[in-house]
């Protein structure tokens, strides 16, 4: 059963645009930059010697990263996700 396609019984959105009402303007990127203070809320937990979990709130969503790290030239570098 495919749900893709036109909806039955719905109004046509093209007719809504011709009513003379302009679509609302998008928010500026400057105001979005002010919301970037949530990036400071990062929690990092070590699972094992080479594995870490980080939980962060970004863009209104909660993101969980599980990464493995390796040591090269005395620096810990992240592996693939």
UniProtKB/TrEMBL annotation:
Comp. bias intervals (Basic and acidic residues): 9-20
GO biological process: positive regulation of transcription initiation by RNA polymerase II
Region (Disordered): 1-39
Cell compartment(s), UniProt: Nucleus
Database matches in SUPFAM superfamilies: ssDNA-binding transcriptional regulator domain
Major location (coarse): nucleus
Molecular-function GO terms, alphabetical: DNA binding; transcription coactivator activity
InterPro entries, per database record: PC4_C (IPR003173), ssDNA-bd_transcriptional_reg (IPR009044), Sub1/Tcp4-like (IPR045125)
Keywords per UniProt: DNA-binding, Nucleus, Transcription, Transcription regulation
GO CC field: nucleus
Domain spans labelled Transcriptional coactivator p15 (PC4) C-terminal: 45-81
PANTHER family xref list: RNA POLYMERASE II TRANSCRIPTIONAL COACTIVATOR
Family recorded in the similarity comment: Belongs to the transcriptional coactivator PC4 family.
UniProt-recorded name of the protein: Transcriptional coactivator p15 (PC4) C-terminal domain-containing protein
Source species of the chain: Gossypium harknessii
